[in-house]
Amino acid sequence: MGNVTLQCFIMTISFKLTNMINQKTAIYRILDANLDRAREGLRIIEEWCRFGLNDGDSASVCKDMRQELGSWHSDDLRTSRDTPNDPGTQLTHPHEEERESLESLLQANFCRVQEALRVLEEYAKLYNGEFASSMKQLRYQVYSLESKLVGKCRHQLLSKTRLYLVTMPADNFLEVIESALKGGLKLVQYRHKNEDDLVKLKEAYKLKQLCHQYGALFIVNDRPDIALAVNADGVHLGQTDMPVGLARQMLGANKIIGKSTTNPQEMAKALGEGVDYIGVGPVYETPTKAGKKAAGLEYVRYAKANATVPWFAIGGIDETNIADVVKAGANRTAVVRAIMQAENPTTMTQNLLSQL
């Protein structure tokens, strides 16, 4: 009877030891895999900082974080790796097979790094408390870097954009805008004055997804709250809308804020408020701004000489008069009806872009 009891005791201890060894190996494999994942994601981000943005400071931050991760990647973690028997190597998702835009590529890799760091932080608590603390600090660094770089990419695209579509209600609303996006449009402002907020939210969200699918910026007219709710790239404010400073507090430093101006005094005030771009117009009288006196080409010439941020001539501009606007000094224009009421928005977009 004593021998049976002893054998049971030995078997129990053996089982527990085996279980402990298996647990330890599993934890090591998790740490190993996520250290690799975080370093790979950071390298992808670092390459864009270096070659796409020429941003040595951000590239250096990425490199330092990769080095920090590497310092924790010990031999005992590496030797626990068992790639042939890892079921995760067979898992994939359609969204991983292609990227819709540079922004989506960067966003995917920021998410990858953040998720990996969170896994490392939690499982490292079972391995090394100092390791876990280091991963927590790195995660906060990555959040800050993401905010900075996504904002920088936004402003870089804004600086390169020549044609700006401001929407108006239409029966085939999304189809018209997608047609314009296919023609090379890279900046869209959602403007729907006389509609309920719930409808605006729904339309704005769908339009943001569509714009980002084509690598275009998406701006909301007048409403920083809706821009925040749908994670738009920014907001456009009129002269009687929310102050720029308050909109900046709501949206953050990395979102785009534009403002309409109709004369040199309004331009000077907008520039002093720190806007990212301005609208210059209306160049011609337009039903979109009923009763508003045209600012004319003289204000376009003034903007050419005095504006210190990207500016878009706007107001009644179409393919019949855009050449005059360009001759007056504009190399960026915003349009509404020219595209929204075009028979072929793709062709119209291409025609307008060719003249800019």
SSE blueprint:
Blueprint: H1 2-52, H2 56-71, H3 75-78, H4 102-124, H5 129-160, E1 163-166, H6 173-182, E2 187-190, H7 197-213, E3 217-221, H8 224-229, E4 234-237, H9 244-251, E5 256-261, H10 264-272, E6 277-280, H11 296-306, E7 311-314, H12 322-327, E8 333-335, H13 337-340, H14 345-355
Parallel strand pairs: 1-2, 1-8, 2-3, 3-4, 4-5, 5-6, 6-7, 7-8
Helix pairs in contact: 1-2, 1-4, 2-5, 4-5, 6-7, 6-14
InterPro entries: Aldolase_TIM (IPR013785), ThiamineP_synth_sf (IPR036206), ThiamineP_synth_TenI (IPR022998), ThiD2 (IPR041397), TMP_synthase (IPR034291), TMP_synthase_cyanobac_bac (IPR016229)
Region (Disordered): 73-98
Biased composition (Basic and acidic residues): 73-84
Give a structural overview.
- The chain has 356 residues and is of the alpha/beta class.
- It has two domains: 2-83 and 98-155, Ferritin (Up-down Bundle); 161-355, TIM Barrel.
- It has helices at residues 2-52, 56-71, 75-78, 102-124, 129-160, 173-182, 197-213, 224-229, 244-251, 264-272, 296-306, 322-327, 337-340, 345-355; strands spanning 163-166, 187-190, 217-221, 234-237, 256-261, 277-280, 311-314, 333-335.
- It has an eight-stranded parallel beta barrel, surrounded by six helices.
- Helix 6 (173-182) packs parallel to helix 7 (197-213).
- 31% of the residues are buried.
- The mean pLDDT is 90.
